[in-house]
Amino acid sequence: MTDPTIGSLRVDGATLHYQVRGHGPLLLLIPGGAGGAAAFDGIVDDLAAEYTVASYDPRGISRSTLDDPDAEQRVAEHADDALRMVELLSPSEPARVFGASSGAIAAIHLLTTQSERIERLVAHEPPVVEALPDAAEHRAYLARVQETFRTQGLMPAMAVFAAGLKKGGDITEPEPELKLPPQAAARAEQTMANLPYFLGRIVPSFMSYTPDIHRLETLSNRLVLACGQDSHGELPNRTATSLAQRLGTELQHFPGGHTGTTTHPAEFAEHLRKALSS
Q1: In a 10 Å sphere around its CB, with 0-12 CB exposed, 13-18 middle and 19+ buried, how is residue 12 labelled?
Q2: Which residues, including other chains, have CB under 8 Å from residue 196's CB and lie 6 or more apart?
Q3: Using alpha carbons only, how large is the chain's radius of gyration in Å?
Q4: Which architecture does CATH list for 5-133+209-277?
Q5: What does the pLDDT look like over 222-234, one tens digit per residue?
Q6: What is the pTM of this model?
Q7: pLDDT (tens digit, 9 = 90+) per residue, 85-134?
Q8: Burial class (CB in 10 A: 0-12, 13-18, 19+), 218
């Protein structure tokens, strides 16, 4: 892996840590979950042959610090952070954007509010449960996650959360532990340190987000919705599928599951490159 150019960007209420590789038009990678920009380590070099690839830790994750650690997190604010990154690194041209999981939700909001700054967006498994016909059931599941977190602590709550993401949505008999992909082992300590913030601040805000379907319909030629080939039936796959159906767009299938950037990096990068240029 080539050494990136490292920078920090001051935004309202936070300082974002970012890294840039390559040359060409800007491709902004917005991570989701608790892993931060390191989740893209396996794909950035392949993409940097064609793009100026920028990735960053979302506010409150890893090296991107909050002024107020207890501040409520909002999708619109995270989308504005992405906008500030685009304005910094590509001030005169619209950017290509890839968002994964909760990062895809921030990217979708950015597209609906600042469409002139995005040439093309690939959104991989955004968990927009409000787009599902059984959204009320998932609201109850998310409330149970937060109640478990409050009364029993982090790992029992993560077990409930992980179980609810699985195929069939079995939230009555959760797995006793959360297993990270093997490729994430090197950054597991940082990921674990991010989990309380992710579960307590990001999950309730982002997974209650309602996308502007009518606005997205007018922008569907710039939006590619993607899911994992191996995650059929899991909650984030279902939300991507439902959103694509509501927008009348074709859903693209990327290698791996929800964490395909980590488990199948070379194949994932190739699919992403094609999706960005098609």
Answers
A1: exposed
A2: 154
A3: 17
A4: 3-Layer(aba) Sandwich (3.40)
A5: 999 999 999 999 9
A6: 0.93
A7: 999 999 999 999 999 999 999 999 999 999 999 999 999 999 999 999 99
A8: exposed
- Give me the residues paired with residue 254 across strands: 228
Q: What is the DSSP string of the chain?
A: -PPPEEEEEEETTEEEEEEEE-SSSEEEEE--TTTGGGGGTTTHHHHHTTSEEEEEPPTTSTT-EESSTTPPP-HHHHHHHHHHHHHHH-SSS-EEEEEETHHHHHHHHHHHH-GGGEEEEEEE----GGGSTTHHHHHHHHHHHHHHHHHH-HHHHHHHHHHHHSTT---SS--SSPPPPGGGGGGHHHHHHHHHHIIIIIHHHHTT----HHHHHHTGGGEEEEEETT-TTSHHHHHHHHHHHHHT-PPEEESSSTTHHHHSHHHHHHHHHHHHH-
Q: What are the extents of the domains in the chain?
A: 5-133+209-277, 135-202
Distance separating the N- and C-terminal Cα atoms of the chain: 27
